[in-house]
Amino acid sequence: MATKTEDYLGITDYKVIGTRPIRHDGVDKVVGRAKYGADIDMAGMLHGAVARSPHAHARIKSLDTRKAEALPGVKAVIAVADLPLQEDKIEELGEGAANLQHLRANVLADGKVLYHGHAIAAVAATDVHTAQEAVDLIEIEYEVLQPVLTVREAMQADAPLLLEDLTTQSLGEDSEKKSNVCTHFRHELGDIEKGFAEADLVIEREFFTATVHQGYIEPQNATALWGADGQITVWCSTQGAFDVRAQTAQILEVPVSQVKVVPMEIGGGFGGKIRIYLEPLAAILSKKTGRPVKMVMSRTEVLQATGPTAGSVIRCKMGVDKAGNLIAAQADMRYESGSFPGSWAAPGAMCIFAPYNIPHVLIDGYEVLVNKPWTMAYRAPGATNAAFASETLIDELCEQLGVDPLAFRLKNSAKEGTRRADGPVYPRIGHEQCVETARDSEHYATQFNGKNRGRGVASGFWFNVGLKSSAAASVNPDGTVSLVEGSTDIGGTRTSIAMQLAEVLGIGAEEVKPQVVDTDSVGETDVTGGSRTTFATGWAAYQCALDIKAQMIERAAKLWEIAVDDVVFEDGYFSSSDASKTISFKELAGRLDETGGPLMGRATVNPPGVGGAFAVMIADVEVDTDTGKVEILRVSMIQDAGKAIHPSYVEGQMQGGTAQGIGWALNEEYAYNADGLLTNASLLDYRMPTCLDLPMIETHIVEVPNPGHPYGVRGVGEVPIVPPVAAVANAIYDAIGVRLTILPMSPGEILKALWTKNGTT
Amino acid sequence: MNAFDYAAPRSVDEAISLLDAENGDVGILAGGTDLIAQLKEGGRKIDLLLDLKRIPEATALTFDEAGLHIGAATSCAQIYTFDVVQSLYPALVDCTSLIGSIQIQNRGSMGGNFCNASPAADTPPSVIVQGGACRIVGPNGAREVVAEDFFVGPGQSALQPGELLIAIRIPPPVANSGAFFLRFIPRNEMDIAVANAAASVVLDADKTTILSARIAIGAVAPTPLLVADAGAALAGKAVDDEDALEAACAASRAAANPISDMRGTIEQRVHLSGVLTGRAIRGAIQRAKES
Amino acid sequence: MPGKVHVTTTINGESVEFLCEPRQTILEVLRDQLDLTGTKEGCSNGNCGACSILVNGGVIDACLMMAVEAEGEELTTIEGVASAEGLHPLQQKFLEHAALQCGICTPGFIVAAKALLDNEPTPSEERIRLYLAGNLCRCTGYDKIVRAVQDAASAMAE
User: Fold this and answer.
1) Which pLDDT band, with edges at 50, 70 and 90, does A569 fall under?
2) Is the pLDDT of residue A1 over 90?
3) Measured between CA atoms, how close is A675 to chain B, in angstroms?
């Protein structure tokens, strides 16, 4: 959109934006009244449960559900044959496209199980205990196959194939070669060989990152009612009600209009609540029984069988000249897709060198099948893995050059006009400002010394997305505005969206009544994901407010019997050149009946002007060299928000991303045994940080307005998870002199690294 | 969870009669923090849930000249908030106040921690080094087993069919003694020990020489281990004898016989046995000096 | 099939009777039978604290307590924290500090923090972090939660 005029309005005296009102849904959430999916109860409701594979890779030889069906209280049992067949067709389904056959085979295994916990059959019964007992009575015989658990194993020529018909899409073409490699892609900028030849210092290393889970506290759930009229209603916990509608309709082979999705309050998502799992099962069980069916996953099921994010192997090589200019960078990025094709190396490749201006770049990416759950997005998916490689390599380059790591980042920073290796040329961006803010911070200025103590910094990038959003609003006679929108609210977005409407209309945030509604009640709205909600749905609310404003001006003109052009609206007041004619928004709202009746505004957007986001983290750690344990003593996250609509919730995203990144850095991982069974499917052994594991998380919001948004908003949700793993790794090196190239940097790994360094065991 | 019956007997005799084989597999409920989790996820099936918490002896927490009497169903929080425990048995505060979370400590009991018999259990090492014993009741009356002999294997205790752990008894601390417990976990709370260790020492009157010591380590063998060699390495040595301390640590490393699992490797656990033994001994000596 | 058990208990100050199977947890009965769905289920195994309730003033995970054990006890759930006069200071401070994002862990945190402040009116940051370590939050990084609890403690001291 190079020819597009800037959308940014350049407002400097906001009334509502930048303030910190209490969120509209807050009281319900602190008193326990907010309704989440698992809180649903309905007359006659049945409870569902799922039979799952105890093997990582096996053929299903036989499935016998007769004993389960005979158990008193069991009303229906279903397996894959109850799901309509699907075409071999790719559909856009939220954050990433998917083949419908794969989606179906993930909902219920089709002849073969591809991971520990893969769903095979489902039961509906009068209570959860009976449903679970029935699941235990389903008899399944398997031919157990050799599991493929790492990228390296999966890419070997004689590796067992997970999807026997899959051929590699190589550099945009079908290679027609059967393999576990779904995709190989490449980005090239400049001449990589020339670049390394010109470099004075080149470092190359290989990095491993473990599979990690989003770790939302609310398990997946779905309740469905397939009415006698054929109308299907689904109540669930999702980041995107319209995406659930599209996927569910496809899998059930019904028109989208036959499915209504009611998004309940959502207990966290982080990318993991976009794909469907239980929704079609609950719907078919409801159809078979004529009763509503509720299904709620256990935590074990969540960890075993929803979509964690990709583990990866990244070989990274970077070269600088003597003056400290980055000359060349190369990456070979191999990401685990899990059991079906994934697409997380692709965004990783967009981000890996994104903070820098590097003339020569070559990136090869591979998406590879392994016998683990089908991966899903997790907060800037792919980018954290990538930054672990590039940002620790940069730290090593800085050390060898003897330069300050922030000075190096500033010198080599990408800026407006820099071309990224995957193609785009940056509009106005804020990486330099983030680095400068970090450099000038009290944190960075404060010395941090002592035995086994160290400081690390790292940068991160996420491109953010736009996508479709809708909003509608009606003006109430008391001057408030009721706003309906379709973005499920995971972190206060009802309020950040409502504030953008309030700003236009000159009313207070609390005078807007925002509601998140079902798919029959608002225009199509894409996922709460890609850091898009405050950006895009906020924009829809802004446009909706403009629509209301224009109509209100017409009403004022009618009231005063003057031309529309003679009415101006400023600071919440309509007025004309005749000084006696002035009326507040509230007063005019009270006179709608006499000027033509009710008034509604509406807007739909699909904004192209997405502003990429950068962040920089400073981490101070102390390492216990006897045990290998890392204590995080102080952290600061510096991030460009473009414009912080509600600073508290921007800080919240920064703090939450930082905490997740620290968990990823130190302890979180999927632990598989040699048979491919997940051995830590609980929140005891999948170790997310507790509040005793973290210090206060200092935040610095940088505001470099996004030229592509009226208020300059950039997405803020994802980028804060990108720098932490590298910042912590760099801090550990500073503390104890060992470079960790494996995630998590658990106590055991740190001990091993120390023993290797000291030549002891 | 399969269906089962529930009983909350009011006396030891009533409980023992309910433990009769005719009632099938009986799950003993104290705090339930292990048992209920196992019933939900671990595939354990029972016919009767027998709640100990209405039996006075099982919930008593008292101290007299014979020492501390900890009813098997007493919660960790009751133990560590008991003033006698705080003043005389700080190593019990160490272990009971770090199990799980506050929520778990308000329910989970030391008796349950013993009967669950996890190699990584947090309370046995402290009890073992302080010379504690388990009071067991059954159809043939009561018997006592020293704490280190209560553990037979992973998930296996010395309890015979029909028997019940009713209390844990720990003798009063002798003069100039101290005990200390710690564990290593990757997080700072809410975790299972990768390894743990407890130490108790008795010093001479001027607190410069170790008269005797007992060391126990956990999560590094099929059961919690009393490491007699570690204690012997310290006996008769000065409190600041670093060679003796290292010999004790080496004895723990030698005694450790761990497995590798997702919580830690053999090498890591053997190493940690030494590290934690050293830290436990230093902690115990410090407490003895302050006693 | 074993029969149901009659339980008499006190919940949020009111006497309550219910019938339950011995295999039902108090969490299941609160949520599915008594319509007290403010207590959330996050892991069902005592590892996340989303189902925190008070039993005789002490905080426990409702997923690890059987419903039959409630006989004769006094339970407090999130629904019993606010009063007719308004929100509890903790609830008010959670709102003011934006100490919740998705909100699923919020009832558990407020109940656990209430147990802390009821017993220790002026806890240090370290003590707050230790006390709340059984409550997982994945959205906030805990910063604003800890500050909200500190601020509530100050407000309650006035």
Assistant:
1) very high
2) no
3) 14
Q: Could you say which of C55, C58, C65 has the minimum Cβ distance to residue B32?
A: C65
Separation between Cα atoms, residue B162 and residue B28, nearest integer Å: 11
Q: Is the pLDDT of residue A313 over 50?
A: yes
C76 in contact with B at a CB cutoff of 8 Å? no
How does pLDDT run across A351-376, given as a tens digit for each residue?
A: 999 999 999 999 999 999 999 999 99
Query: Is the Cβ pair B187, A692 closer than 8 Å?
Result: yes
For position A158, what pLDDT does the model report?
Answer: 95
Residues C98 and C148 in one domain: yes
pLDDT tier, A94 (very low <50, low <70, confident <90, very high otherwise):
low
**pLDDT per residue as tens digits for the range A155-170:** 999 999 999 999 999 9
Residues B135-166: tens digit of each pLDDT: 999 999 999 999 999 999 999 999 999 999 99
C30: domain CATH number is 3.10.20.30
Q: Which amino acid appears at position A236 of this protein?
A: C
Question: Are A662 and A593 in a shared domain?
Answer: no
Which tokens is B208 given? 């410069």
* Subunit contact B41:A679, Cβ cutoff 8 A: no
Across the range B249-259, mean pLDDT stands at 98
* CB within 8 Å: C104 and A658: no
Site of tokens 């075409």: A87
Residues C68 and C97 in one domain: no
Residues 6+ apart with CB under 8 A from C35: A41
Q: Confirm whether pTM is higher than 0.90.
A: yes
A240 and A112 inside one domain: yes
The count of structural domains within chain C is: 2
Which fold would CATH assign to domain B57-170?
3.30.465
Residues of B in contact with A751 (CB under 8 A): 267-268, 271
| CA-to-CA separations, A577 to A560, A565, A583, in angstroms, rounded | 12, 10, 13
What distance in Å separates residue B73's CA from the closest CA in chain A? 23
ipTM beyond cut 0.90? yes
Residue A590 lies in a domain: yes
Whether A196 is covered by a domain: the verdict is no
The CATH number of whichever domain residue A244 belongs to comes to 3.90.1170.50
**Facing residues of A36 across strands?**
A265
- The answer to whether A684 contacts C35, with C-beta atoms less than 8 Å apart, is no
Neighbours of chain B (3+ CB pairs under 8 A): A, C
Rounded to an integer, what distance in angstroms lies between the CA atom of residue A262 and that of residue A567?
A: 41
Q: Cβ contact (<8 Å) for A129 and B3?
A: yes
* Claim to verify: residue A525 and residue A643 sit in the same structural domain: no
pLDDT at A96 over 90: no
What number is the average pLDDT over the span A303-318? 98
pLDDT of residue C122: 97
B4–C23 CB contact, under 8 Å: yes
Instruction: Say what the pLDDT of residue C1 is.
Output: 61
Distance of CA C155 to the CA centre of its chain: 20
Residue pLDDT, tens place only, A210-219: 999 999 999 9
In a domain, A4, yes or no: no
CATH of residue C112's domain is: 1.10.150.120
Q: Interior CA angle at A301 toward A298 and A306, to 5°?
A: 125
* ω into B90 cis (within 30 of 0): no
Q: Measured between CB atoms, which of C41, C94, C138 is closest to A30?
A: C94
What is d(CA A730, CA A398) in angstroms, rounded to the nearest whole number? 11
C35 lies in which domain range? 5-80
Note whether residue A601 is domain-resident: yes
For chain B, domain boundaries: 5-48, 57-170, 177-290
* CATH class of the domain at B177-290: alpha beta
Flag if B103 and C46 touch (Cβ within 8 Å): yes
Longest dimension (CA), chain C: 56
Which chain C residues touch B106 with a CB distance below 8 Å? 55, 58-60
Torsion angle defined by CA atoms of residues A143, A144, A150 and A155, in that order, rounded to the nearest 10 degrees: -40
Cβ–Cβ gap C143/A697 under 8 Å: yes
Query: Which among C2, C47, C66 is the nearest to B32, CB-wise?
Result: C66
Other C-beta atoms lying within 10 Å of the C-beta of residue A92:
11
Per-residue pLDDT tens digits for B98-122: 999 999 999 999 999 999 999 999 9
